[in-house]
Amino acid sequence: MASQMAIKFEKYWSIIHGNMGIAIVLDPRFKFKWLEYFYLKLYGSLSSIEIENIKNLCYSLFEDYQARTNGLVENSSENFIDRELSSKNGNNANFLSDFDSFVNETDEIQSKTELDIYLEENVLPRSATFEIHGWWKTNEIKYPTLQKLLRIFWQSQFLQLPQNMLLAPEVDC
């Protein structure tokens, strides 16, 4: 009986492990510091491998989502300023596009993603009054892709909860 339970737990853990890791990393109070601390206790000398797996999963998810949304943005209609310039100046619709090209040529190549920037910031102090949804809403301008990705991630995780947990919140998990 115990061996069957261990097998079921290992199967469950292998499925939920990545999702839990992503959720922890996207909490500005914990990020990878939480994983570094607890994975050392759980996995010992293998902790760095497990952390790297979660890091790869985070970057893969971010890059996949960013590629999907960038395709939508690039294929969308011109932005407001380009439309205004185009309507006022006739063929000068490329005015800001030329500026964008100039900026790209003269600035260093931006090699950091939103995820890199987010992860480089210090973790926030833990507080009983911290509201993670509010924090992400406030930081939506700074991390637009991460905020949208997180919204989808939370929704998908909520939909994966067993029905008895959704209908009976007093059930202890």
TrEMBL record:
Pfam families: Dimer_Tnp_hAT, hAT-like_RNase-H
Transmembrane segments: none
GO terms of molecular function: DNA binding; protein dimerization activity
Domain HAT C-terminal dimerisation residues, every copy: 114-154
Superkingdom assignment: Eukaryota
Coiled-coil segments on the chain, per record: none
Residue ranges constituting the hAT-like transposase RNase-H fold domain according to the UniProt record: 1-65
Name this protein carries in UniProt: HAT C-terminal dimerisation domain-containing protein
Upper taxonomic lineage: Eukaryota, Viridiplantae, Streptophyta, Embryophyta, Tracheophyta
